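Aggregate trends can hide what the representation actually does to any particular protein. In the encoding step, the backbone of a single protein was reduced to a row of integers, each denoting a local shape. The record that follows shows the chain in one-letter code together with its fold in token form.

***
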Amino acid sequence: MKKIIQIIIGVVVSLLCIFPLAWMAIAGFKPEKEVLSYPFKFFPSKWDVSNYVELLENQAFIRSILITLLGAVIFTILVLLVNSMAAYVFARLDFPFKNTLFVYCIITMFIPGMAILIPSYIVVAKLHMLNTLAVLIVPGIASAVNMFLMRQFYLNIPTELEEAALIDGASRFKIYWHIFVPLSLPVFVLVGISSFLGYWNALIWPIMTISDENLYQIMQLLAFFRSNETNQWAMVMAGSTIAALPTVIIFLFFQKHLVEGMKLSGLK
């Protein structure tokens, strides 16, 4: 009986989570007048694919998808590389003021991003990084949260592997690259997916730093589209559905590794 109740609760929660995404996708197939019609209709009276076809033929929309995907991939790779090296240093190396530096890094976790938004903008403006892909990538590479998760993971790797490599004459970088990185798949998936989603869904920072239409990020373009096409909600829903597909696919593909990474990194 207990298992049946758990299954029922799981199904109900799953349906509640899926409902908004399903409604958004189906709304893209509705005629304009039915999207926000009353009484509410979940399915359209007539399925219309013109909204999706028009978006897929829109060069600005496709360019935005591709440039956002490129930036997200570069950002994710750099996040994994930089934070994993920092995590290895704090987990395995001994050096003066190690604990002090670690605390200093961790404190940044408690500073809200909005609190440093204006100072960050001033810095990148003085560095002449506005309207470049670098302004969307570089400022967010180093992350105390990601470094902390990777450090927790590395602390659970047996020291015998490292000691054996040191006896064989391996350098610290070789140990990191050939032992720790191959073993880091679970935590890499966890950090990688969160970093990819963070970049993909970013809105405020791209709006502040990017005014070149050729570099518009997908969420930025959708926000601009909504502000200029407020009477075309079916088109907005279709665009939002297409923009959500890469993140949904990535989550489903790496779901098993994501759960494993959360367990091994000490998250409950």
Remarks:
- The first helix runs from residue 2 to 27.
